[in-house]
């Protein structure tokens, strides 16, 4: 019986040691993934992660990741009946004298990026402007509570003012790699 107890104790110690190593490596990986942000971007660090608005087979998705201390990059999608109708690549970056929001949509503006200057920023949102662009000219991101993201687009379409508001919720699971 003493021999069995000793074998059991050795297995238990070995399992505890392996579990400790595994948990420690997970903690270290998490710390590596949480990169520090430039002080000018820290007010909007809450943007990092996945945001969604789903209704049956339709969805609006936006996902943001930290690229480096001066760059957040994102992707946006609109899906209707399980078909991707709209896709955009997004970036927020710190320049020498300003902060820019950049949107690239493959089938718009000859696939060239459209640059917006971030003119306002707080812990609960930011405003981007490019008054020479048709639509949108102004993009407003607002965090409502901890889990709702309101995005308002304003501009001119067919010589008339146009406004569109998108409401996204923080996704409970990771949407995009």
Which key terms come to mind for this protein?
177 residues, alpha+beta, ten-stranded antiparallel beta barrel, 18% helix, globular
Question: What does this entry look like structurally?
Answer:
- The chain is α+β, with helices and mostly antiparallel strands and 177 residues long.
- It contains one helix and ten strands.
- The chain has a ten-stranded antiparallel β-barrel.
- The longest helix has 32 residues, at 2-33.
- The protein starts with a helix and ends in a 7-residue tail after the last strand.
Overall outline: globular
Report the count of strand segments: 10
Distance between the termini: 52 Å
H-E string: HEEEEEEEEEE
Radius of gyration: 22 Å
In DSSP terms (H or I, runs of 4 or more residues), the helix count works out at: 1
Unreliable spans: 1-5, 7-32
Strand order of the largest sheet: 1-2-3-4-5-6-7-8-9-10
Largest sheet: 10 strands, antiparallel, barrel
Percentage of β-strand residues: over 45%
Percent of residues in helices comes to: 10-25%
What structural class should be given to the helix and strand makeup?
Answer: alpha+beta
Mean pLDDT: 83
